[in-house]
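User: I'm preparing a small set of examples for a lab meeting where we compare how different chains pack in three dimensions. I only have the primary sequence for this one, and I'd like the structure in token form so I can line it up with the others. Please keep the answer compact; I'll paste it straight into my notes.
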Amino acid sequence: MQRTLEIELRLSRILSLMQDAETGQRGYLLTGDESYLQPYEASRRAIDSAVDELRTQIIRNPGQFAHLGVLKKLIDEKFTELIASIEQRRSGLAFDAAGLATVDVGKRLMDRIRAVLAEMRAVQGGLLAEHQDNVEAANTRMQAWTIAAFLLLLGVAGFALVKFQQQTLGLAAANRDLQSAHAKLVQESLNRERAEGQMRQAQKMD
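Assistant: Understood. Below is the structure token output for the 206-residue chain.
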């Protein structure tokens, strides 16, 4: 999930750089003021590292890596168009129909760059959704296992309680039997002593 979010940031960064470059170019073409090229120059310096950072994030995803190849080619073409129009303006040549055609080519390139970035973002969105589904499925399985373990533990505890009650009842019954046998022995002993006493008295009388 963290990787997907980082890739989203890299894609947004590339789009932002390309928009800044195009904005700088248009400002310069309209005014001829070199200060308008500052966003363009900054984007031109940063774009390669931004692409490289994205490449390290998606190198294990063949589909996204292929998209990046297309994206890099479009970016290179876009900067070629930007440089050509800027150099034409610097040379003092009129921005004629050919120049307008170059800008039109640049617009089409920018539209294609946006489309590729949007497709890559959609792929990452699908991966994120898949990851979230997997997490939810894992949570569901974990809950099911927890409930099953609880029920098993409850069953074991119930079985142990029943066995304990059975043993307790068995011990109580055995104790009662033992007490009854002891009482019987005591009574038999008393009866025997009484009978012996009576026999001794009868012998004395004889």
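A couple of notes for your slides: The chain has a mean pLDDT of 82. The two ends are 113 Å apart (CA to CA).

User: Perfect, thanks.
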